[in-house]
């Protein structure tokens, strides 16, 4: 039984919602119900004048929402016709209250006030007209007219007040809906910006992981290939020891290559896993920092580049953002040195912790690698610049006075605005020219 009642309620609620979506349908039902009510209650009063007055007062309610002032004036015309043709109230007079309510609820403030004034004037005229039909002396006439006028004026005032309250409520709801839409747009924009920031962060991390690891892989692969060819070229027993040493060097090189590739693959899988799992915690940065600087230096040394690292000051208590940014600066600078410094180049890494800033300086004395194949547009230095500037730091990357290349980054350790002065970092050393006396040649790809 309760299930049937619930289903019936749901059906009625659904029908009501559908009906409210078509306002004219509700108004037509209201007009039809009023006409039926007038016919039933006025069965004994029916006459041409009664029917005409009822129709003129009720039918205009069909337009009470779309044209409230016009509908109210039409109802007022029916009331004037009632004063002329009849001298008594009729059931159709309830249309006056509906017209006043509709003008206050669906019309403008000006329309609302005009219809309120017309309704009060109509109350006075109706009171005088109906009191005149039972005239029994001036005193009695004035008393009856006053009571009837006040009674009808109260009804008009209540109808207007209800309509005005509904109009104000709709205005408040409309403003709230507009605010909700604006908030939804703002939220959607924030989400888009957050998604863009996340994509940029992932792109930077992916570049840092893949670019450095592939640079090591390329260098190690070239070294292993050279050692293997040297071993194959020495085919006599006299060169057996040298061949064995070359093969051992090739095996060590391949082992380093495999380790680097596996580490890069693990970091790449973790970043891609963040993209695949919408509910994962967006921690894009690999757990690396200056504490892993020695491992990074050893990996680069294993590729054949002479690297010396110096850390001055305590760097164990740096914030995660500053620690990772400093590590990435060193990593990107070493990657560029391996790719562009050329043979027999040495690299110095200097990390200095001061009370106010952390300075990272990476220099090399290479002459530049000749005839290097292009490996695409460089994004390392722009990514480095973005990473440092968001922390309020600066980056300088360019040729040294005598020869070689240097990257200098300063990272503030105190709270600072996330704005920085323009840096002089260039796009992965694009076509850098140096002063006479040596240095990298133009177009070395750094």
Automatic annotation (TrEMBL):
InterPro entries: DUF7134 (IPR055558), HATPase_C_sf (IPR036890), HATPase_dom (IPR003594), His_kinase_dom (IPR005467), Sensor_HK_TwoCompSys (IPR050482), Sig_transdc_His_kin_sub3_dim/P (IPR011712). This is histidine kinase. Its EC number is 2.7.13.3. Residues 176-205 form a coiled coil. Residues 436-446 have a biased composition (Gly residues). It is an enzyme of class 2 (transferase). It catalyses: ATP + protein L-histidine = ADP + protein N-phospho-L-histidine. Signal peptide: none annotated. SMART domains: HATPase_c. Residues 416-446 are annotated as: Disordered. Residues 328-415 form the Histidine kinase domain. One of its GO terms (molecular function) is protein dimerization activity. PANTHER family: NITRATE/NITRITE SENSOR PROTEIN NARX-RELATED, NITRATE_NITRITE SENSOR PROTEIN NARQ. The chain crosses the membrane at residues 21-39, 91-107, 114-132, 138-162. Keywords: ATP-binding, Coiled coil, Kinase, Membrane, Nucleotide-binding, Phosphoprotein, Transferase, Transmembrane, Transmembrane helix, Two-component regulatory system. Residues 416-425 have a biased composition (Low complexity). GO terms for cellular component: membrane.
């Amino acid at each position: 039984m309760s299930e049937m009642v619930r289903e019936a309620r749901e059906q009625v609620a659904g029908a009501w919602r559908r009906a409210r979506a078509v306002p004219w349908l509700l108004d037509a039902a209201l007009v039809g119900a009023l006409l039926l009510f007038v016919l039933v209650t006025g069965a004994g009063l029916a006459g041409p004048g009664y029917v005409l007055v009822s129709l003129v007062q009720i039918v205009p309610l069909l337009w009470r929402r779309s044209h409230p002032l016009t509908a109210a004036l039409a109802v007022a015309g029916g009331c004037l016709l009632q004063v002329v043709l009849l001298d008594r109230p009729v059931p159709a007079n309830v249309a006056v209250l509906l017209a006043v309510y509709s003008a206050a609820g669906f019309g403008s403030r000006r329309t609302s006030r005009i219809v309120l004034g017309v309704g009060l004037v109509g109350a006075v005229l109706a009171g005088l007209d109906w009191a005149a039909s039972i005239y029994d002396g001036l005193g009695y006439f004035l008393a009856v007219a006053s009571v009837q006028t006040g009674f009808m004026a109260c009804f008009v005032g209540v109808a207007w007040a209800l309509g005005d309250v509904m109009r104000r409520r709709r205005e408040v709801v409309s403003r709230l809906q507009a605010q909700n839409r604006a908030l939804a747009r703002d939220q959607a924009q924030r989400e888009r910006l957050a998604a863009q920031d996340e994509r940029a962060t992932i792109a930077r991390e992916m570049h840092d992981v893949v670019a450095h690891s592939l640079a090591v892989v390329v260098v190690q692969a070239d070294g292993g290939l050279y050692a293997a060819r040297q071993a194959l070229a020495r085919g006599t027993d006299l060169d057996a020891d040298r061949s064995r040493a070359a093969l051992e060097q090739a095996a060590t090189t391949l082992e380093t290559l495999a380790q680097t590739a596996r580490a890069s693959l693990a970091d790449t899988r973790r970043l891609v896993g963040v993209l695949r799992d919408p509910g994962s915690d967006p921690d894009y940065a690999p757990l690396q920092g200056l504490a892993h600087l020695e491992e990074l230096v050893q990996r680069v040394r294993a590729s054949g580049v002479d690297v010396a690292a110096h850390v001055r000051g305590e760097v164990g208590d740096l914030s995660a953002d500053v620690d990772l940014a400093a590590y990435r600066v060193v990593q990107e600078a070493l990657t560029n040195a391996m790719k562009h410094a050329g043979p027999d180049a040495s690299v110095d890494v200097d990390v200095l912790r001061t009370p106010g800033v952390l300075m990272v300086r990476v220099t090399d004395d290479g002459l530049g690698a000749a005839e290097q194949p292009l490996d695409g547009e460089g994004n390392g230095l722009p990514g480095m610049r973005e990473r440092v500037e968001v922390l309020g730091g600066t980056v300088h990357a360019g040729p040294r006075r005598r020869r070689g290349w240097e990257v200098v980054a300063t990272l503030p350790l105190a709270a600072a605005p996330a704005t920085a002065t323009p840096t002089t970092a260039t796009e992965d050393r694009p076509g850098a020219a140096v002063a006479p006396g040596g240095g990298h040649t133009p177009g070395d790809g750094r």
